Amino acid sequence: MAGILARLRRRDGAAAGETADSAAGTSEAAPSSNAAAGSSAAPRTRFGAWLGRPMTSFHLIIAVTALLTTLGLIMVLSASGVYSYDFDGSPWAVFGRQVMWTGVGLIAFYIALRMPVRTLRRIAFPGFAFTILLLILVLIPGIGKVANGSRGWFVVAGFSMQPSELAKIAFAIWGAHLLAARRMERASLREMLIPLVPAAVIALALIVAQPDLGQTVSLSIILLGLLWYAGLPLRVFLSSLLAAVVAAAVLAVSAGYRSDRVQSWLDPAADGQGIGYQSRQARFALANGGIFGDGLGQGTAKWNYLPNAHNDFIFAIIGEELGFVGALGLLALFGLFAYTGMRIARRSADPFLRLLTATTTLWVVGQMFINVGYVVGLLPVTGLQLPLISAGGSSQATTLLMMGLVTNAARHEPEAVAALRAGRDDRVTRLLRLPLPEPYIPTRLEVARNRLHDRRKSPSRGAGKPAGKAGAKPAGKAGAKTAGKQAGKQTRARQADARQAAPRRTPRSGDRPVRRSGRAAGQQPAGGGKSSVRYPAGQRKQGHRARTLEGQRYG
Q1: Range with lowest mean pLDDT among 202-216, 495-509, 522-536
Q2: What integer pLDDT is reported at residue 527 of this predicted model?
Q3: What is the domain partition of the chain in residue ranges?
Q4: Which pLDDT value is given to residue 208?
């Protein structure tokens, strides 16, 4: 019996110990769970603080451009090896030319990044006029070269260049400059459309004469973007959109190869070994990739199964070798670029940079959607390349040039200008040896317009006046004196009521300096006459200078 009681006591003690241990574990787990919750909330707070930094847009656009360019070079090397070996005898030929044009584009990127905004606006119209001249020259036999059924190339020393790519950039810059200037001048709708739309029609007509459906669609996207972001009336935008759709439909059925593309899109199985062969092989490559792909360089569609695998249909190679995950990651990069571009446009104070950045973002993202759309079979084949990914010299260089302009606009955000001019140490700016951006100075007309807009938003001044009979006037001098006396009495009465209603401030102990314990009231502080008075929280010493905007630390 005694042994049983002893065992029960030991069991009860063990149970009590386990209960205490579990309680202690629970008490320890609560702070750990709170810490975990705090750690999960902290990254969100840090991420929000990072997004609020003045140089975030600048760093984001550089990172996205670098990632897209690097991924494009890798995929061009993987997709062009067989084609290069068949036509040039070396698997590095297409990749080498792409690297060279990427170097040219990076130089253009750096020039655009350093270019002052005033200089860019000054050369906008001469640059557009020069590209119109190039579009005319390329149509002359013997000067322009025919490639893929289009006379739209200059060939110099073995290197080809497409002037329509330069025309798109020049038109975007000049159009943004024109619309921004006309909006500041409060020009009429006709004055805003007359220079822009006829110039776009001339450029589009010259590109259609080559013919090049892809560049026509791309320039139309830029025109529609300029009209939309300039804030023109909706009827003007819709009429322009309708005209663009009708023109695209007419062009699609006017030529034999374009009508064949439309027919293969409407009925892919009609001629699977003919006009629909390329689109069919692209979908086979995407299906073969699955979720994670066959591996980089392990695709089979580039072995002469898919025409233009390194150019127009490189997205199919990405889907085959990197799978659905890789293709989705590429689309996420373009989505990040769209967010960054619109963020820069929204935060810019200069109307020209705002319009140029938004239009460029729409152009790049729209071209990406069209390319991916016809690769997966949602759109007819137009020949538009995937920006910064597809092989193409002039397209690569001009896209990097536009990325440089967007990055330049990111440095001209008001917060970024204030931070850089206040001496903030930005490592990327120091590494690239970039000059300080100039702050945007609004014109007198813009300042007057903003004042008028603020005055309209402010409440009416006569809202607090006592209501009276409309149009009632005091009769004669006696009436005027009586009205003046009554107004004076009412004013004095209101002032007296306000003084009586105002709460009196009672002195509190926190308003007086608190002396440290252990010192007498009249004792002098030791240490060279330094004051030992401690001031309450929120109260500063007299003479303390507040930090100005130029001296604040950003980031």
Answers
A1: 522-536
A2: 43
A3: 52-437
A4: 86
Q: Which long-range contacts (CB under 8 A, 24 or more apart) does 193-200 make?
A: 193/232, 193/236, 196/223, 196/226, 197/223, 197/240, 199/128, 199/171, 199/174, 200/171, 200/175
Per the CB < 8 A criterion, the answer to whether 411 and 437 are in contact is yes
Amino acid identity for residue 247 in this structure: A
Q: Are 459 and 200 in contact (CB under 8 A)?
A: no
CA distance 149 to 252: 15
Which DSSP string corresponds to 106-124?
HHHHHHHHHS-HHHHHHTH
- Measure the CA angle with vertex 56, ends 55 and 60; round to 5°: 120
Per-residue pLDDT averaged across 344-348, rounded? 93
Point out the least confidently predicted range of 108-112, 288-292, 444-448. Answer: 444-448
Q: Phi/psi zone of residue 197: left (φ > 0), alpha (ψ -120 to 50 degrees), beta? A: alpha
Q: Report the C-alpha gap between 313 and 290 in whole angstroms.
A: 17
Give the per-residue pLDDT at 235: 82
Say which DSSP state 339 is in. Answer: H
- The answer to whether the CB of 320 falls within 8 A of the CB of 342 is no
> How far is Cα 539 from Cα 194, in angstroms, rounded to an integer?
62
| pLDDT value, residue 246 | 82
The DSSP result for 404-435, as a single string, is HHHHHHHHTSHHHHHHHHTT---HHHHHHTPP
- Determine whether 2 is exposed, middle or buried from the number of CB atoms within 10 Å of its CB (0-12, 13-18, 19+): exposed
With CA atoms as reference, report the closest residue to 360 among 416, 399, 411. Answer: 399
The residues, ordered by sequence, that sit 6+ positions from 358 with a Cβ below 8 Å of its Cβ are 225, 229, 341, 342, 345
Angle (nearest 5°) at CA 403 between 183 and 374: 95
H-helix segments, 213-350: 213-229, 234-254, 256-266, 277-289, 314-347
Q: Are 493 and 473 in contact (CB under 8 A)?
A: no
Whether residue 520 is predicted with pLDDT greater than 60 in this model: the reply is: no
What is residue 541's predicted lDDT score, i.e. its pLDDT? Answer: 43
Which residues have CB under 8 Å from 244's CB, separation 6+? 220, 223, 224
Q: Quick check: 224 and 234 in contact, CB under 8 A?
A: no
Band (166; pLDDT cuts 50, 70, 90): very high
Q: Quick count: other Cβ atoms within 10 Å of Cβ 381?
A: 28
Mean pLDDT of 334-352: 94
pLDDT of residue 227: 87
Q: What kind and span of H or E run contains 151?
A: strand 150-156
Q: Is the peptide bond before 437 cis (omega within 30 degrees of 0)?
A: no
Q: What pLDDT was estimated at residue 30? A: 41
Looking at per-residue confidence, does 304 or 69 come out higher?
69
- Would you state the pLDDT for residue 52? 84
Beta-sheet strand order (sheet of 145-147): 145-147, 150-156, 159-161
Q: State the Cα–Cα distance between residues 52 and 357, nearest whole angstrom.
A: 20
